[in-house]
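dumping this here before i forget
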Amino acid sequence: MTVVPVDFRARDDAVARLTERVHSDLSYLDYPVEREWTLRRPGGVPVLDVLIIGGGQSGLATGFALKRERVANFLIVDRNPRGAEGPWRTYARMHNLRTPKAVTGPDLGIPSLTPRAWYEARFGIDAWNIITTVPRAAWSEYLDWYRDTLGLTVRNDTNVERVEPSGELPAAYLTGPAGPETVLARKIVFATGLEGSGLWRVPSIVTDNLPREKYAHASETIAFNNLRGKRVAVLGSGASAFDNAAVALEAGAARVDLFGRRAGISPVNPLYWMNFTGVLANFHDLSDLHRWRFGRHLETVGTPPPPSAVARCGKFANFSVRLGEPWLRLHDCDDGFALITAKGHYQFDFAIAATGAGHNPRLRPELVAFADRIALWEDRFTPPPGEESETLGQYPYLGSAFEFTEREPGTAPWLRHIHNPSFSGVASMGNVGGAPSLRFVIPRLVSGIVRDFFVDDANEYLSDFLSFNTPEPQQAHW
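structure:
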């Protein structure tokens, strides 16, 4: 087999030409003609049409879709500085994305805006033909180009402290470089990715028994260089667990042991089965029983780590996988900490909890003022005997456009204005949250938002329509 040498140096001229092509392509789709059609709220108080929380791939794609629907009165905020939105330059520690290189989604059907178009312009067609998955660093660079090419403004270093109802609308309380600010919005979108509408979780056995300097969650910034020569325990057996174990090993850890509570790792990834239009576009239209059974099977089987992540760790002789060993006890001591499982006693210096996130909205600090009014699956559905799942029951029960629904109908009607197109939607919407789902998630989300804008203001639009009297230019002489 002949290996084609590839020049991976920047091809700024080709990228610039692609940027021009995107603008040209969008100009061909410039219909309906640009006009400001959403209505401003009376009373003089500024009200956003949409506040988007999160400037990663989902938040950016939402902003692009709103612009295409001629909704310009929106704001994207992100708590991180420019370049650190989403996981790609922070806690994502894989070398390449998990999805095949041909993935589309943020482009919303514009060929010149696809990851492939950008990659070929940036590195050349030969480079594209060689890879099977997109390098993580390249994906983050693609999103930077996407943001700039589409003119999407993100207010970085801005945190949403809380959301509360203000009359019929939600209000968000922000803190950022300019100080505290209260923003009213007709719609709020939580584009919060893996965190969903919950929080990263570290098991209480860790938080109750170890000082903070001896453990970290996989989503946090970890000083892996400080783990050189150290004994590291990783809790979890998914992709993130293997990624973090690999980085620790590559940083020179003396030993890394990965612990999983399951007795084995399934060789089957059920998410791959779910990557087709039937699921991605229509899962929400299934009965509650069908959706519950899909979700419960996904929970039972689990999602295995990709072979590349396992192989990355397998190169090290000082790496061990210990399955079927849930952690029973931890004891802090001067020389690290002692770990006891059903199968043995161990001594470590540092622990990494690759234990994901809880997706109960009552965990989310921004929602604490009204989280108990949000309907969860356990509030809406009683599974057949033997099919119970405490975890699945904690997911929010979302409407057709990813909106929260009321736990008690009529008590919190403004919840329909808060949308959550994140991994918290798995129970209600199926395989959502990742790049492959954006092609279906974003149109559904934005279509629901735009529908509400028009329907909620139907009286005003009717009045405006009835008073419309601009004559056609060629008929003015009549």
